[in-house]
Write a structure and sequence with these properties.
The protein is α+β, with helices and mostly antiparallel strands and 164 residues long. 22% of the residues lie in helices and 49% in strands. The N and C termini lie far apart (89 Å).
């Protein structure tokens, strides 16, 4: 009974209302987004300079959410066989529809020395393991989650194709 009387007072009612709003309302401010599926769709050498190599990586994004992903950019790091190889950023304005896919290209940069070390490290190996980690930066205000982490791993076969 004492609890009911204290709730009837205007100050206590306001505090109770605010607690209820904050405990339930924060979840309604922004949806929890699942990380999109990321697959490497293509890798191409764009430019080789005396001290730097530029690669273009095309990423296939698969949106598992029931809302579109309004992407304004991304940053990523590429590892080959467990060693950091290249990093890059992209100003990629792209809208991935709910339960849809899209491709975003990102330029990554690596030193020529890392490329040479990477090629020398491939001798005698049949597979190249890669890991791509990064963050998608989403359009929106600062109250909503503005980034989503992603990770993609895989292997590429280094065996030569058989001659016909």
């Amino acid at each position: 009974m004492k609890v009911l009387r204290s709730v009837k007072q205007p100050g206590n009612l306001l505090i109770l209302s605010m607690l209820m709003i904050f405990s339930t309302g924060c979840a309604g401010l922004g949806k929890h987004l699942q990380s999109p599926g990321i697959n490497v769709a293509d890798i191409q050498v764009q430019e080789v300079k005396p001290f730097e190599t530029v690669l273009r990586i095309d990423l296939r994004l698969i949106n598992p959410n029931d809302v579109p992903l309004d992407i304004k950019g991304l940053n990523c790091d590429l590892e080959l066989n467990g060693k950091r190889f290249a990093s890059g950023v992209a100003d990629a304005k792209k809208k991935i529809p709910p339960y849809g896919t899209g491709v975003i290209s990102v330029l990554v940069y690596s030193s020529v020395f890392k490329v040479i070390r990477g090629v020398l490290g491939l001798q005698g190996k049949e597979k190249l393991k890669y890991e791509l980690k990064g963050r998608l930066h989403l359009e929106g205000n600062r109250l909503l989650g503005s980034t989503i982490p992603f990770e993609s791993t895989g292997e590429l076969s280094l065996k030569a194709l058989p001659e016909p």
